[in-house]
Specification:
The chain is mainly alpha-helical and 241 residues long.
């Protein structure tokens, strides 16, 4: 009698289970294209500030449905990323396997970040689940490129939101990074720095007190960008809502 493999597929006794068939990258791209909308694509830059020359205009809900159907595959994620298509790269972050992601891959993808949508989704859905995330926060915070630097603080914010096990010391140690970057006037960096500060402050009372103290110092800065970050963080962290 045929035996059942762990994935539910039938296999012949004494033989290794057959691997799942590889999904053709062209088939995935064709499906993404079929779900695209010219109107949605044309609205990406003016409405959402997402600038890209290679997009189909697919909704996030459709990408999530497709990712669920495809399942996790590190190989597929790598192939999707190489295409350069916005939606393919979004999908790559949804299907990749966090435990297979290497520091080198994270650096390669980070160098490719060219808009906040890709940057934030990759950090929120994939990078913050890897064991290398903490190191990359500190490395990328020293980068000059706009979206590489944004990635440092978007990743820090995601860790503050999602990581339930790391103690306060790591996040306290990242507050100087926030303070040093707060005067960066580039919009996408400035907003990520603010996001990270607020996310850290919302973890617990000790971190809130430390984050508020940083926000107060930043709010008193002579630099306009730093003042904005400090005042916005203070408003959010001290609100009674």
């Amino acid at each position: 009698m045929p035996a059942k493999a762990k994935n539910g597929r039938t296999r012949t006794a004494g033989k290794k289970a057959e691997p799942s068939p590889k999904v053709g990258i062209q088939a995935v791209l064709q499906e993404l294209e079929s779900k695209g909308s010219r109107h949605r694509r044309d609205q990406m830059a003016p409405r959402y500030g997402i600038h890209t020359d290679k997009a189909f205009g697919v909704s996030m809900s459709d990408m999530l449905k497709l990712a669920k159907r495809l399942g996790r595959s590190h190989e597929l994620a790598a192939a999707l990323w190489k295409t350069g298509w916005y939606e393919a790269r979004m999908l790559a972050s949804l299907v990749d396997e966090p435990d297979q992601v290497t520091p080198a891959q994270m650096d390669r993808w980070c160098r490719d970040f060219d808009n906040w949508g890709i940057c934030d989704t990759v950090c929120f859905k994939l990078f913050d689940r890897t064991p290398h995330a903490f190191v990359k926060v500190k490395q990328w915070a020293m980068r000059r490129e706009e979206f590489a630097k944004r990635a440092a603080f978007a990743l820090l914010a995601c860790l503050a939101l999602h990581d339930k096990h790391t103690g306060n010391d790591f996040f306290l140690g990242c507050l100087p990074l926030i303070e040093n970057a707060a005067d960066d006037e580039r919009n996408f960096v400035m907003k990520a720095v603010d996001w990270a500060l607020r996310a850290i402050g919302r973890r617990n009372s000790e971190l809130k007190a430390a984050a508020v103290a940083v926000a107060q110092r930043i709010a008193a800065s002579p630099k306009a960008a730093a003042r904005w970050v400090g005042k916005d963080a203070l408003k959010q962290l001290t609100s009674r809502r």
